[in-house]
Amino acid sequence: MQTYNIHEAKTHLSKLVEHAALGESFIIAKAGKPMVKVMALDTPEPAQKKRIGFLKGQVKVPDDFDTMCADEILELFGIEK
Questions:
Q1: Burial tier of 19 (Cβ tally within 10 Å: 0-12, 13-18, 19+)
Q2: 3-state secondary structure of 17
Q3: Quick check: 28 and 9 in contact, CB under 8 A?
Q4: With contact defined as beta carbons under 8 Å apart, do 36 and 28 qualify?
Q5: How many Å separate Cα 22 from the centre of its chain?
Q6: Going from the N-terminus, what domains does the chain have, and what CATH number goes with each?
Q7: Do 36 and 25 touch, CB atoms closer than 8 A?
Q8: Distance, CA of 4 to CA of 11 (rounded, Å)
Q9: Residue 9, exposed/middle/buried by CB under 10 A (0-12, 13-18, 19+)?
Q10: How far apart are CA 22 and CA 63, in angstroms?
Q11: pLDDT along the chain (81 residues), means of 10
């Protein structure tokens, strides 16, 4: 993807908009730091990664999860059972 500084983008805005409308997205930078991405309105949005539940069915939590290692934990805190 091509990057243009603000001054260059202002100078060639018409040409850059035409290219963006044809599907050639570009980035406008200020002092070399990317600021905005310009793309056609009908460009499909990138699919978001689904994060919640991505390990569903791949991990098994034991039934005694809440009490696992309880004796060892109490011992670490100096509490006798």
A1: middle
A2: helix
A3: yes
A4: yes
A5: 26
A6: 2-38 (3.40.1620.10)
A7: no
A8: 10
A9: buried
A10: 57
A11: 93 94 93 93 78 86 89 89 69
